[in-house]
């Protein structure tokens, strides 16, 4: 096999044969002055630093020389545990140029998960952020079963005897070093992405340049974006969505990445950048809608009337588009007027007035959240895929059609079908090679015909749209033998703004119960609007009779939309939000049901007594 063309910037005629180093070289040659990467230092009001594509190409060359001096070579795995900061993004590309395989690790990963990943990928080097990460990784250096030999530390003055990241850039670039760079072949591994582990140990998903390019080309076919579009990068790089949106697609599109190292500050960055595209997992869209609803609830009644009228017009306009119809001229005129006079000023306050493509994936999106944003004229294009499918496998699209509540049609790089038990099967050019074994080999997870069993349950309608039901392993089977989708019930419960999170329970039981978590943004606003005062913050509100009465009404309303088996008979109201730091959510904000069940075992048991 021959190596790919090196740093000339020339690309193979077949886009699927392109590699990431070739795209970097192309960008440096064709768009040398276009901004590629912007980031801030830790200070809240710090100035932004920006690298152009030419600067990225030169900087990653120097950085690759530093990694080479540490003994990193072709095919070596290198672990990265840092926030979305420049050292992470640039190291990722530098390692790929060197022929190594970057492996990002979630910052919230438990020590036992980190140990498993380090042993599984056999990496000898890890690049970590600061003192907190050093404390977690350092014991592995003395672990006889872990090949890890060295740590590089990004934050200055946090090295504690380990190699400072800045030293990598002080290494001289060897003569003829260009001959060692940019030789990746399309079939070479580009990265290993470890699943976030809702159950069991994380598995290392091996993805090649060709699979990533296939997915990038398929995504470009379903989105409508301006050239060199901005992307706000705030999800972890260990998440396949952010690797595609924040690293690979920007190289493919020569677009501009804004790094947001602290996800709690994403709103500030959105207001600064006013991006044309915005992606969020369902929990992000839920929190955004809760925050906006809280503001709306405090507006004067006459202003709310004007807003509600504008929302109705926007949803009617979206309805025509959803059906593939052209809105009547009279509606188009009313929508343009409502958008200009009412909706855009509100969206501008949050930095979302320029959004032309908004999307979600990772878990079923609550339909009421989708409809809420449709009231602003923003159609959240829900998509579906797995780490194993290099991200998106199906997507709604402003170009090819959408159905609110579905996850769209298959993108060009895959085909899907439904097995007899309802499980979604997928195959195609962007489906992964297999799972990494500790000896470096890859274990395929495909059947003899190339189909991947995804573990998700769904159906395909007559127009080819995929509708998700739930994870196969998470389906509840009641004591009467009825199958219940927990996500369906949970999304119905969360339609009330007071309920921010929900988990239903009922395996081998005669009825369902639920744990409900008050929404941290919406609950105080609801209390203020309804004259409810309670000491003790959310905990006090969770005990207030008026709040509990309203939640009773919310559960009853949800039950009217569910069949008898799906209805929730009893619940407990909680005030402490679930998150990755406390273990109830994965780093990609999916529920760890087993963790929640164990943590609240007494509460769940109590709901079945008396």
Automatic annotation (TrEMBL):
Q: Where is each AMP-dependent synthetase/ligase domain found?
A: 25-436
Q: Carries keyword Ligase?
A: yes
This protein's UniProt keywords: Fatty acid metabolism, Ligase, Lipid metabolism
Catalytic activity annotation: a long-chain fatty acid + ATP + CoA = a long-chain fatty acyl-CoA + AMP + diphosphate
**Does the UniProt entry include the keyword Lipid metabolism?**
yes
- Please indicate which superkingdom the organism of origin belongs to: Bacteria
The similarity annotation says:
Belongs to the ATP-dependent AMP-binding enzyme family.
* Protein known as: Acyl-CoA synthetase
The record lists the organism as: Streptomyces phaeoluteigriseus
What phylogenetic lineage does the species belong to? Bacteria, Bacillati, Actinomycetota, Actinomycetes, Kitasatosporales
């Amino acid at each position: 096999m021959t190596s790919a063309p090196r740093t000339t910037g020339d690309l193979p005629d077949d886009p699927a044969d392109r590699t990431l180093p070739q795209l970097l070289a192309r960008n440096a040659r064709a768009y040398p002055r276009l901004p590629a990467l912007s980031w801030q230092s830790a200070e809240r009001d710090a100035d932004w630093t920006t690298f152009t594509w030419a600067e990225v190409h030169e900087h990653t060359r120097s950085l690759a020389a530093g990694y080479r001096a540490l003994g990193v070579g072709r095919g070596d795995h290198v672990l990265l545990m840092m926030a979305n900061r420049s050292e992470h993004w640039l190291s990722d590309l530098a390692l790929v140029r060197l022929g190594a395989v970057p492996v990002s690790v979630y910052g919230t990963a438990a020590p036992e998960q980190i140990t498993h990943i380090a042993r599984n990928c056999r990496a000898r080097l890890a690049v970590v952020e600061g003192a907190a990460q050093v404390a977690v990784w350092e014991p592995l250096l003395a672990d006889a079963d872990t090949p890890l030999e060295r740590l590089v530390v990004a934050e200055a003055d946090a090295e504690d005897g380990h190699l400072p990241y800045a030293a990598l850039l002080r290494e001289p670039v060897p003569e003829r070093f260009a001959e060692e760079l940019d030789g990746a072949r399309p079939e070479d591994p580009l990265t290993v992405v470890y699943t976030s582990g809702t159950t069991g140990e994380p598995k290392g998903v091996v993805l090649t340049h060709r699979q990533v390019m296939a997915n990038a080309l398929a995504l470009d076919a379903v989105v409508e974006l301006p050239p060199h579009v901005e992307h706000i990068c705030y999800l972890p790089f260990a998440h396949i969505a952010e690797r595609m949106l924040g690293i690979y697609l920007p190289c493919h599109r020569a677009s501009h990445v804004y790094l947001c190292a602290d996800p709690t500050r994403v709103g500030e960055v959105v207001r600064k950048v006013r991006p044309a595209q915005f992606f969020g997992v369902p929990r992000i869209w839920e929190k955004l809608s809760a925050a906006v609803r809280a503001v709306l609830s405090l507006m004067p009644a006459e202003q709310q009337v004007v807003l509600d009228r504008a929302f109705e017009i926007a949803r009617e306009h979206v309805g025509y588009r959803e059906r593939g119809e052209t809105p009547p001229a009279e509606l188009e005129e009313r929508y343009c007027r409502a958008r200009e006079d009412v909706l855009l000023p509100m969206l501008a306050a949050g930095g979302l007035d320029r959004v032309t493509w908004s999307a979600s994936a990772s878990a079923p999106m609550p339909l009421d959240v989708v409809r809420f944003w449709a009231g602003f004229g923003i159609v959240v294009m829900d998509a579906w895929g797995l780490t194993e499918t290099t991200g998106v496998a199906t997507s709604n699209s402003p170009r090819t059609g959408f159905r609110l509540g579905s996850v769209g049609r298959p993108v060009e790089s895959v085909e899907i079908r439904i097995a007899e038990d309802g499980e979604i099967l997928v195959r195609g050019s962007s489906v992964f090679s297999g799972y990494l074994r500790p000896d470096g080999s890859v274990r395929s997870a495909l059947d003899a015909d190339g189909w991947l069993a995804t573990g998700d349950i769904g159906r395909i309608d007559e127009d080819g749209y995929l509708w998700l039901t739930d994870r196969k392993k998470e389906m509840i089977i009641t004591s009467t033998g009825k199958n219940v989708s927990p996500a369906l019930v949970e999304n119905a419960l969360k339609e009330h703004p007071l309920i921010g999170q929900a988990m239903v329970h009922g395996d081998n039981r005669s009825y369902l119960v639920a744990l409900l978590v008050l929404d941290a943004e919406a609950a105080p606003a609801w209390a203020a609007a309804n004259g409810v005062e309670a000491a003790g913050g959310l905990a006090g509100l969770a005990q207030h009779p008026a709040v509990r009465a309203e939640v009773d009404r919310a559960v009853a309303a949800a039950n009217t939309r569910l069949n008898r088996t799906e209805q929730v008979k009893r619940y407990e109201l909680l005030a402490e939000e679930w998150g990755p730091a406390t273990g109830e959510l994965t780093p990609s904000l999916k529920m760890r049901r087993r963790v929640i069940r164990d943590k609240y075992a007494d509460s769940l048991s109590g709901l079945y007594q008396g």
